[in-house]
Amino acid sequence: MWGCVGVGIVMSVLFLVFMEPILTLVGASADTWEYTKTYLTIVSFAGPFVLISNCYSNVIRAEGQSGKAMMGQLIGNLLNVILDPLMILGFRLNIAGAAIATVIGNCTGAAYYIFYFLRGNSSLSIRIKDFSVKDNIASGVLTIGVPAALGSLLMSISSILMNAQMTKYGDMAVAGVGVAMKVTMMTGMVCIGLGQGIQPLLGYCVGAKKWDRYKSVLRFSLIFAFTLSTVLTVLCYIFTNQIVSVFLTDVSAFEYGVSFSRILLCTSFLFGVFYVITNALQACGAAAESLIVNISRQGLIYIPAMFLLGALFHETGLIWAQPVADVLSLLLAIFLYIRKAKKLL
After folding, report:
1. d(Cα 154, Cα 212) in Å, to the nearest integer?
2. 182 C-beta neighbours (distance < 10 Å), count
């Protein structure tokens, strides 16, 4: 928890200090520069609270309180959704209003978790006097956490590179790819949550060496995750026009958004299986294998594919890089898991 506070403060300061280079990297144009700068400046102050929320939700889930872990995320996100139109349209704060709504949502979600611990509902302590890096605490956290962190970091870097490459085709293309990614996130985020939910359960089984239970949990999770991601993908594909129209009104941006969304949805039905296997690797303590998988989907495979396909097929090629990376990364994850399982089970 205190590591998240420290990292959050450092990251917030870095965003504010290096604002200009960051805006250039994300592909902000002359037309969008001030909007992007305003939004990022305000949101940067929420850095520690974002990390606290993510830290606490996982810690509370590991305690077996999955309902309370979910509640904190829901409170923050729902508040953000409610405040967005109020701040943007009601108070006429425009892009600053969207940023303020995001900050309030993140801070409220973090506050929910902090009060949960302060009320004594947890068997764990967040008091600074109990902070320690002894007994391999730091190395244990970092061994499993760094691969996941690198995956998230590469996701951000790949998004920055995508926006930078897409700016060649205009602001409307950038807007289209941004919305298309949000459409697939409707499936992706649910599957990420499912994968994170089964990780502690699989970890308990590994620690207790209950291999029969481990296999049954994993089998059920794979079937359920595949079914869920397939259903969500089909729904998003059927209602692509309606979903994109909520975010984009410009005709050109709308066409980009629909076209890009349908390309990305080609492989989103695989998300459930991918995230279950990835979290199963982490539950088994397979740090090296987990690291390889996490840096492959958004880095080692995706980024080269983006540049190669972008050069060959322009904006359409840039989008197809993600489905290609999804398939290859899943095959890699399955191979590494099978190899690890043979040694462990």
Report:
1. 35
2. 17
Q: How far is the C-alpha of 95 from the C-alpha of 128, rounded, in Å?
A: 37
- Cα separation, 68 vs 66, in Å, equals 6
Phi and psi dihedrals of 239, rounded to 5? -105, 25
Give the separation between CA 307 and CA 302, rounded to whole angstroms: 9
Q: Which of 273, 141, 283 is nearest to 198 (CA)?
A: 283
Per-residue pLDDT at 105 exceeds 80: yes
Rounded to a whole number of angstroms, the distance between the first and last alpha carbons of the chain is 33
Q: Are residues 249 and 168 in contact, defined by beta-carbon separation less than 8 angstroms?
A: no
Q: How far apart are CA 159 and CA 139, in angstroms?
A: 29
Helix, strand, or coil (residue 1): coil
- For residues 21-44, give the mean pLDDT: 89
Burial track 226-236 (b if 16+ CB lie within 10 A, e otherwise): bebbbebbeeb
Q: H or E segment at 71?
A: helix 66-85
Residue reference for tokens 């730091």: 138
Extract long-range pairs of 13-18: CB within 8 Å, 24+ residues apart.
15/40, 15/44, 15/47, 16/41, 16/44
Is the sign of the CA dihedral 134, 138, 141, 142 positive or negative?
negative
Is residue 292 predicted with pLDDT exceeding 80? yes
Predicted local confidence at residue 78, as pLDDT: 92
Does 151 score more than 80 pLDDT? no
Coil, strand or helix at 17: helix
Q: How distant, in Å, are the alpha carbons of 9, 90, 134, 224, 287 from that of 139?
A: 22, 48, 9, 33, 12
Whole-Å CA distances, 101 to 8, 45, 51, 80, 151: 19, 12, 17, 5, 27
Q: Are 282 and 147 in contact (CB under 8 A)?
A: yes
Burial grade of 146 (CB within 10 A; 0-12, 13-18, 19 or more): middle
